[in-house]
Automatic annotation (TrEMBL):
It is found in: Cytoplasm. The lineage of its organism: Bacteria, Pseudomonadati, Bacteroidota, Flavobacteriia, Flavobacteriales. Pfam families: Mur_ligase_C, Mur_ligase_M, MurD_N. PANTHER family: UDP-N-ACETYLMURAMOYLALANINE--D-GLUTAMATE LIGASE. This is UDP-N-acetylmuramoylalanine--D-glutamate ligase. GO terms for molecular function: UDP-N-acetylmuramoylalanine-D-glutamate ligase activity. Belongs to the MurCDEF family. Pathway: Cell wall biogenesis; peptidoglycan biosynthesis. The keyword Phosphoprotein does not apply. Residues 307-420 form the Mur ligase C-terminal domain. Keywords: ATP-binding, Cell cycle, Cell division, Cell shape, Cell wall biogenesis/degradation, Cytoplasm, Ligase, Nucleotide-binding, Peptidoglycan synthesis.
Length: 443
């Protein structure tokens, strides 16, 4: 059997390693360049690869193709492979064929990284053998090749879900849906929503779908479509007969005959969105028979994800917060909503079709000044110039931090929450976040 892997990054190299272990003839092809660390792995494993080109004759010999999530389905070569009947799948789909592990799959436009890390932290604290993979950490395929644990918590993007056929998580979590990556979905929100719901398409009545009952897009899809999974909602807006809800500063969980209550003031992560993340993670853990005391202790001891509302330093009474992972408007909405002091907001980057108007009430209420961090800031300036007097354009993290330092006064906050992708000035949102943190430390 011939396996061709398109893309020599984390997921591609993981799939190649697993392919070799399962006796496939493996060939890796990357149209760009392959990072040194991955090249070493391929060479050490004696896996054939090419970079800077896609050799069509080699690729079309494949019995199965594993495609990097970054390659759109609309690329001519992918369409041609599918026309010829060659299965084109994601690394998640490929890896899932070789494990009997209990899988928790977590998706959503925002909050999925934190919910994944939080769920993994609770399960690991309970003594379970559990891996964390997908959009985070070492690739799922790589982990199965190396250790094949009994449980996995997977953070799943819409791109990864687009490449599944038989993949089925025992517990699926749908954190929320807001417009994102619409450039990959013909600028149609319904296509993106359908992609997210692929997480439940193979679930049976033995499986569970935990979902945000406050999300209008989720509610609409569920009123028009069906899933076989057992539905478990969570909400911070209304009381529920079943699931998790918020009442009088307490999370209340009703999953069976018992009622479990937990105060939100002691949670390690504060903010409304983190209450939802805690609800989803707690219910997942309860379904997997983790003791309530372990859940409570884990929620109180958890340290959050890097680049997600990450406190950096307090300088002259000003708090600096790195939320570089906020690559869409909805993520920034959560960030601004959790600010409790006047805020100098650093925003901007590659706009994926953003509508900033949703942020207007929060900007009026919380934002003192805006520092733009992007090549083209016209849309941001146009949207907010009527409500914010001070808007400054900058061309890099260091300049943005220096400008924010001059504007912010004691008792205020400087928040990097770009609401945009990072590729105009940075390699990635991680690079953007690290440059921001370095610039703050240099002050």
């Amino acid at each position: 059997m011939k396996l061709v892997v398109l893309g020599g990054g984390e997921s591609g190299v993981g799939a190649a390693i697993l392919g070799v272990e399962k006796d496939y003839q493996v060939f890796v092809s990357d149209k760009g360049s392959i990072a040194e660390k991955y090249k070493k792995v391929l060479l050490n494993s004696k896996i054939e690869f090419e970079e800077g080109v896609h050799s069509k004759d080699r690729i079309f010999e494949a019995n199965v193709v594993v495609k990097s999530p970054g390659i759109p389905d609309t690329v001519p070569m992918i369409l041609e492979l599918k026309e010829k009947g060659v299965p084109v799948i994601s690394e998640i789909e490929f890896a899932s064929k070789f494990t009997d592990a209990t899988i928790v799959g977590i998706t959503g436009s925002n909050g999925k990284t934190t919910t994944t890390m939080l769920t993994h932290h609770i399960l690991e604290s309970s003594g379970m053998d559990v891996g964390m993979a997908g959009n985070i950490g070492d690739s799922f395929a790589w982990q199965i090749a190396q250790s094949n644990l009994g449980n996995y918590v997977l953070e799943l993007s819409s791109f990864q879900l687009d490449g599944i056929e038989g993949f089925k998580p025992h517990i699926a979590v749908l954190a929320n849906i807001s417009p994102d990556h619409l450039d990959r979905y013909d600028y149609k929100l319904e296509n993106y929503i359908a992609s997210k719901f692929r997480i439940t398409m193979n679930q049976t009545k033995e499986d569970y779908l935990i979902y945000d009952a406050d999300d209008e897009h989720i509610a609409k899809w569920m009123s028009e479509n069906q899933t076989n999974a057992q539905l478990i909602p969570f909400s911070i807006e209304k009381e529920l007969e079943f699931g998790a809800y918020l009442k009088d500063e307490e999370i209340i969980i009703k999953l069976n005959t018992e009622v479990y209550k937990m105060g939100i003031r002691t949670l390690a992560l504060q903010g409304k969105h983190n209450v939802k993340n805690a609800m989803a993670a707690s219910m997942t853990a309860q379904l997997l028979k983790v003791r309530k005391e372990t859940i409570r202790e884990s929620l109180e001891s958890f340290e959050g994800a890097e680049h997600r509302l990450e406190p950096v330093l307090k300088i002259n009474g000003v708090e600096y917060i790195n939320d570089s992972k906020a690559t869409n408007v909805n993520a920034t909405f959560y960030a601004l909503d959790s600010m409790e002091t006047p805020t100098v907001w650093i925003v901007g980057g590659v706009d994926k079709g953003n509508d900033y108007f949703d942020l207007m009430p929060l900007v009026r209420e919380k934002v003192k000044a805006i520092v733009c961090l992007g090549v083209d800031n016209q849309k941001i300036v146009q949207t907010f110039s009527s409500v914010i007097d001070l808007i400054v354009e900058t061309a890099g993290a260091e300049e943005a931090v220096k400008v924010a330092y001059k504007i912010a006064e004691k008792g205020e906050t400087v928040l990097l929450s770009p609401a945009c992708a990072s590729f105009d000035l940075f390699d990635s949102y991680e690079d953007r976040g690290r440059q921001f943190k370095n610039a703050v430390r240099e002050l």
